[in-house]
Structure formats: structure tokens, C-alpha cells
Design brief:
Blueprint: H1 10-19, H2 48-65
Length: about 70
């Protein structure tokens, strides 16, 4: 079983919460409009797989937020 925290809109996790696969960690909504975060342990970013994933995720987010950009 995995471990971690995800900040997602309730509509995207509703089924998983109802099935007990996810649990609600906060008792109130977290303001997240246009705010996205990548969180790792300090040493984790040194691992090639983690660094590659973070790089890919940043490029995907940039391309979706600014279509046509080369970032």
C-alpha cells in the first residue's frame, strides 16, 4: 500500500474516498486555485528517477498551462 498526501479536488477522489482507498486528511478545504506543488524529501531529488519525473511533470504542466511554449 502506498503512502503520501495528494491535494486534489473532491470530485476527482470521490469514488476512492467512498471505497476507503483514500482518506481525507484535512477537515476543511485547502485553497489551491492555480497552486501546484511538487514535494519530496531533500535527498530524493538526487535520485535520477525522481529528478526525471519532476522534470517531466514540470514540462507537462508548462505545456498545458502555456500551449505552444517550448518550456
Amino acid at each position: 500500500m502506498g503512502q503520501g498526501v495528494a491535494l486534489v479536488r473532491g470530485i476527482y477522489a470521490r469514488e476512492e474516498i467512498a471505497d476507503g482507498r483514500l482518506a481525507i486528511a484535512l477537515d476543511r478545504p485547502w485553497p489551491s486555485e492555480f497552486a501546484y506543488y511538487i514535494v519530496t524529501l531533500p535527498a530524493a531529488i538526487e535520485r535520477p528517477a525522481t529528478a526525471h519525473f519532476v522534470d517531466w511533470l514540470m514540462k507537462e504542466a508548462q505545456a498545458r498551462h502555456f500551449p505552444g511554449s517550448n518550456a
